[in-house]
Amino acid sequence: MRKIHFFLIISFNFLYLPVKAENLTSSQVTNPDSTQIETLLEKAWELRSNDPLSAIQFAKQANAIAETNEDKVNLSQVLNYLGVIHTNMGANEIALDYHVKALASARESGDWRQIGYSYNNIGGIYSTKNKLELSTSNIFNAIKIFTEQNFNRGLAYSYLNLGRLYKDQENYKQSMNYLTSALDQIKILENEDIKAKVLLEVADLLRLQGFYTSAEKTYDELREIYLSLNQKKGLAEVWNSLSEISIEKEQFNDALFYAEKALGINEEIMNFEGEIKNLINISQIYLSINNELTAEKRLTDALNKADQLKANYLLLETYEAYYQFYKKTNDTGKALYYLELFNTLNDSLVTKEEIVRLGELESLIKIEKAQQENDKLVADLKYQTTQRNFGLAIAVLSIILVGFVSYRFYEKKKLSEELKQTNSVKDKFLKIIAHDLREPFSAIFSAVELLKDNYNEMTKEETKEFIDTIGKSVKSDFDLLENLLLWARSQSNTIQFEPELLSVCEIIDRNLDVVRTGINNKKISVSVECKDKLRVFADEQMLNTVIRNLLLNAIKFTHLDGNIHIHCRDEEKQTSIQISHSGIGMNEETLNNLFRLDKKVISKGTAGEMGSGLGLIIIEEFLKKHNGTLNIESEFGNGSKFTIRFPHKGES
Asked: Of the candidates 430, 427, 517, 504, which has an alpha carbon nearest to the alpha carbon of residue 471?
């Protein structure tokens, strides 16, 4: 199975943090509460792999006791336990929160061991997010602490995490170097639990490099260790890896046997991430033996579970698996559909991160400039103080400080508003690119790839038709790019608003051609009522954007074999264009939130289509420039009507 480098997250069995008497102070050993915490944590650790929900309950009981007693020493250890258990379940965001709190608590108590463990755990989670700098800096902080204290167990876990990190980056040589360092520490410890974790990574490295015989031998050794330790999650990982080796060797019966065993264990211990990966793996096996029906059913199971978990990285992996499935089964339409879903979700995640970076950068520049101004003012005040007598200097200083504070207050308020507005514009523009530009171009690239893969099987007529379709898409998407850039310029007030008399029918026909593919895919019937002589006084590019977004919205929410009706008419002082559809409609809450940036309305279309939720906001902004209006009538289950009105020339 191909990796998704930026979003594939691997569950880790992180740090084993045993609570032993030798790790506690003498007062803690005799403290009943401390003894109770120790007992609860031992139960939690024992159940962490096979019964994680019970493990969490025991750990939370220990957490409540530590918080009540303000026991910072035990609290940091409890929080690290909770983080490890949640990581094993694939809940990495919750786990990260626990480890950050554990680090803060350990710092307060001065517990170097828990400080080191916290750093290493945080670094491990950041590696799953592909944040390499944050990951390595935290892990090396842990290594520094453990080296100073000559703590072999901590060093073993830190080297293990670095080995995992470099393995995920496909730097197998560096990964093996760190795993070998971990094994060196383990020889001193003679601990089977840690040894199993490192051997699992070594076996995976061997498998990824095609050394199957050595990998299988290591997995067999691991299986015996996990059976003796009664660690079901480890057994599931071994079965899954053996399944992947069997796939590579085209031994599909063995592959299915191992994959089903892994799935059964992951279902039992509620390792949801493991279940989804197993289902995708099983689907690929069935596809390899030409059982497409069962393969598709397994993918559906994986998608339903990922959707229930609301885990974007698992949805991404499932969408990609669907794309590969339909590509191999030569279902071009469905392959493109799932690729669009993948790109839309992928783009939305990247866009969010880009916006954060842009906002932070601009804020830093503003703060630095303000600090320079402040330093200059302080220097001026010092100079004045040395030139005047003490009383006059104090008076002048007081007046200046009052003025300065007032000035800074209002400047800061003004700057805050400007930053909000700037970030809002960036937010909208970046999301529009993801919504209106990246999807169609990705679809074109995929169409070209599908044409290339199926070229020899297609007739000349089919090939020509395919190329014509791609050509039309390129033309439409190029027009779309021009409109997006036009909108961006309008936000920065660098574009002229140039309304003119335009033919309404020509505008409607032109934009229907742009969205024709979507209409045909859903077999939607379109009817248009428009008199040839009807004119509208509007900016042509902005009007195209408004009509196109309304049509895309109608297609998105109209069912298969549905209908769209366009009615254009000349009213007393204005021209109206109404686009109605027989789609799913909207409830009152959705209608109330359509134009709010702080409550984004993003609904799936009737075929699962995704969008940025900004189409109607763009329409509203462009209509304001025309002194136009937008009226929406909708009832959930009964479709919607969107009516836009433009005043006649000379009217306002």
From this structure: 517
Contacts 24+ apart (CB under 8 A), 597-600: 597/424, 597/427, 597/428
∠ CA 246-202-5 to the nearest 5 degrees?
75
Listed residue (533, 538, 479) closest to 511, CA to CA: 479
**Position 150, amino acid:** N
Q: CA–CA separation, 480 vs 555, rounded Å?
A: 17
Calpha distance 286→259 (Å, rounded): 11
Give the torsion through C-alpha atoms of 380, 385, 386, 391, to 10 deg: 160
Q: pTM of the full predicted structure?
A: 0.43
For the chain, what is the largest distance between any 2 Cα atoms, rounded to a whole number of angstroms? 97
| Model pLDDT, residue 647 | 92
Is there a contact between 573 and 648 (Cβ–Cβ < 8 Å)?
Answer: yes
User: Which residues neighbour 127 within 8 Å (Cβ) at sequence distance 6 or greater?
Assistant: 135, 161, 164, 165, 168
What 3-state DSSP class applies to 170? coil
Question: Which residue in 491, 492, 500 sits closest to 538, CA to CA?
Answer: 500
Identify how many contiguous H helices and E strands the chain contains and give both numbers: 25, 7
Task: Report CA torsion sign: 365, 371, 373, 379.
Answer: negative
Q: Is the predicted pLDDT of residue 559 greater than 70, yes or no?
A: yes
Query: Could you tell me how far CA 294 lies from the centroid of its own chain?
Result: 29
Q: Is the pLDDT of residue 575 over 90?
A: yes
Range of lowest pLDDT (13-27, 282-296, 345-359, 396-410): 13-27
Residues with Cβ within 8 Å of 337's Cβ and at least 6 positions away in sequence, in order, are 607, 608
pLDDT, mean of residues 14-38: 50
Structure confidence by residue, pLDDT tens digits, 431-451? 555 555 555 665 666 667 767
- C-alpha R_g of the chain: 31
Please, how many CA atoms are within 13 Å of residue 531, restricted to the half-sphere of its CB?
9
Are 329 and 284 within 8 A, CB to CB?
Answer: no
- The DSSP bridge pattern shows strands 563-570 and 525-529 to be parallel
DSSP state of 573: S
Q: Are 430 and 351 in contact (CB under 8 A)?
A: yes
Angle at which helix 112-128 crosses helix 92-109, to 10 degrees, equals 160
Question: Is-contact 430 355, C-beta < 8 A?
Answer: yes
- State which amino acid sits at residue 306: A
Q: Which residues lie below 8 Å from residue 202, measured CB to CB, with a gap of 6+?
A: 176, 179, 183, 218
**How many residues does this entry show for the chain?**
652
